[in-house]
Structure formats: C-alpha cells, structure tokens
Amino acid sequence: MQRFVVISGCSGGGKSTLLTALQQHGYGVVAEPGLRVIQQAQESGSCALPWCDMDLFVEHIIALATTDLAAAKGSHDGIVFFDRGLIDALAAKQRLHPESQSLDDSQLSHCYDRCVFLTPPWPEIYEKNDDRQHSIEAATAEYEHLLQVYAQLGYHIHLLPKTSVQKRVDFVLHHLALTA
After folding, report:
1. For residue 67, what pLDDT is reported?
2. Over 80: is that where the pLDDT of 124 sits?
3. Contact in structure between 116 and 84 (CB atoms under 8 Å)
4. d(Cα 154, Cα 102) in Å, to the nearest integer?
5. 59-73, 87-101, 108-122, 132-146: which range is least confident on average?
6. Rounded Cα distance, 107 and 139, in Å
7. Of 5, 11, 63, 90, which has the fewest CB atoms closer than 10 Å, so is most exposed?
C-alpha cells in the first residue's frame, strides 16, 4: 500500500533535515519542487526564480510537483515523504492571485495521506541563502496560508515540535503509527 505523506510548513524550519533523516531510515523521499526549480533556473539562466518572475516560478513548481506525484504513484511502495508538493504549489498560486478560484478540494484532498506535518516558524534556525532569499516574515506568512489551505482541504495537521531531528523523526513515525 502506498502512502504519500507531505512535510510542509515554514521555509527554513528544518523540513529538509528531517526528510534526510527519514530517508536514512529507509523511507522514500521526494525533494522539494521549489528548490529544484531554483537550482535548474540558476543553472540554465532562466528567470523562473521567485525573485525574478514569481508567476513563472510557481508554474514550474506546479508542473514539477504534478510530475513528482505521478512518478511516485508508479514507482514507490510503502510510505513516501514529500518535501512540500502539489498542494503547496497551488497554494502559492492562490496567494499570488487571490481573485482566482479556490483550490479544488475534491481533487486535492485525496492525493496525499490525510496526515500532514508542518514545520512552524523557527527564527532561531532560519537562514537566508542563495536558494532562500526571502525574510522570516515572508516565510511565516506563507506558513499561515498553508495552515489554512491544508485545514480547508480536510487534512489532519500535525505541527512538528522544535526539537532534535531524531525526536522529530520519532514524532512523525508515531503519528503515522510506525516505529522508528
């Protein structure tokens, strides 16, 4: 049985570190589409960067997240953890264009496991870098929007504690009724 579990939340909140640890425990992991789009754009000289053309960036993320989901359905058994995913990408588009239609919950409420994990803002570990050039305030606003979107879609949100990586791994596995 396949279970696609999203780990989302505040940028710079430790998602990638947690996912690396889960991968070391033998779980499948799908890397964050946004970071991959940034890396591809920087390598190719494309303007699909959030600080260059946000609409183009989001469209690339939606396409990549859609591809990731389809690829995982055909190739992974068991639990696969997604570092963000299609819902995050569509939520970003919704934030850019609030006048557009709301997210189609009939489609999005069933593409991932009902249990979703969100990293809350964690200013003590937040760092800007070449791939993350936005402020903690912008990251927090995105997080608050994601909380609303996942709740509206009927997902069961678990906020990851601000603690060690191993304790976060234990927290995730406990809530998924798995053992570490």
Report:
1. 93
2. no
3. no
4. 14
5. 132-146
6. 26
7. 63
Domains and CATH numbers, the chain: 2-175 (3.40.50.300)
Rounded CA gap, 154 and 114, in Å?
A: 8
pTM of the predicted structure, to 2 decimals: 0.88
Structure tokens at 109: 């409420």
Amino acid at 115: C
Run of H or E residues at 119: strand 115-119
Distances (CA, A) of 88 to 73, 76, 77: 18, 21, 23
As separate numbers, helices (DSSP H) first and strands (DSSP E) second, the chain gives: 7, 5
Q: What is the mean pLDDT of residues 136-164?
A: 89
CA separation for the pair 134, 70 (Å, rounded): 30
Q: What pLDDT, in 10s, does the model give residues 102-115?
A: 666 555 667 899 99
**Helix, strand, or coil (residue 176):** coil
**Amino acid residing at 135:** S
CB atoms within 10 A of CB 99: 5
Structure tokens at 108: 């999005």
DSSP per residue over 44-103, as a string?
HT-S-STTT-HHHHHHHHHHHHHHHHHHHHHH--EEEEEES-HHHHHHHHHHH-TTSPPP
- Phi, psi dihedral angles at 42 (to 5 degrees): -65, -40
